[in-house]
Amino acid sequence: MLAVAFLRSAYKTNIKMEKVIRDGKVAVLISHGYGAGWYSWNTEHQQLLFHPKLVEMVEQNKNDEINDEWVKENLGIDIYAGGSDGLSIHWLPVGTAFQVEEYDGAESLRAIDDLGIVA
């Protein structure tokens, strides 16, 4: 079964999130590994897609240190962090709307502009 998790904009939900932005692109964290999803299993916590501490850990290849306790201690949220081992960073132009798709725990990212929606 294909599950699609749509990102609600911070504007609509009044959530202010920290993000890593470089050269006009924002870092988005996605877990490609099968088994447990990262954001798709924790959609109520959008900061899991962007948080600078998480981006830093992935850039330093420290995914194996990101677990439930690390997330609770560093981000203050209680989640199942089973998808952390498959995390990678995707760089999208700032303001790009996207969705996270998940199949059997493996996530993929698709920009809304690429969907080919017809009304």
Topology at a glance:
Blueprint (H helix, E strand, L loop, with lengths): L2 E4 L3 H4 L7 E2 L2 E7 L20 H8 L8 H8 L11 E7 L4 E6 L2 E6 L8
Antiparallel strand pairs: 1-5, 2-3, 3-4, 5-6
Descriptive notes:
With 119 residues, this protein is α+β, with helices and mostly antiparallel strands. It is 17% helix and 27% strand. The protein has a 3-stranded antiparallel beta sheet, with no helix packed on it. Strands 2-3-4 form a 3-stranded antiparallel beta sheet, covered by helices on one side. The protein starts with a strand and ends in an 8-residue tail after the last strand.
Strand content: 25-35%
Question: Low-confidence parts lasting 5 or more residues at pLDDT below 50?
Answer: 1-14
Q: From the alpha-carbon coordinates, what is the Rg to the nearest angstrom?
A: 14 Å
Instruction: Kindly state the number of beta strands.
Output: 6
Question: How would you write the strand order of the largest sheet?
Answer: 1-5-6
End-to-end separation: 25 Å
The overall pLDDT average reads 86
**Number of helix segments?**
3
Structural class, judged by helices and strands?
alpha+beta
Question: Could you give a short account of the major beta sheet?
Answer: 3 strands, antiparallel
Shape: globular
Main traits of this protein?
119 residues, alpha+beta, three-stranded antiparallel sheet, 3 helices, 6 strands, disordered N terminus
Entry summary:
With 119 residues, the protein is of the alpha+beta class. It has 3 helices and 6 strands.
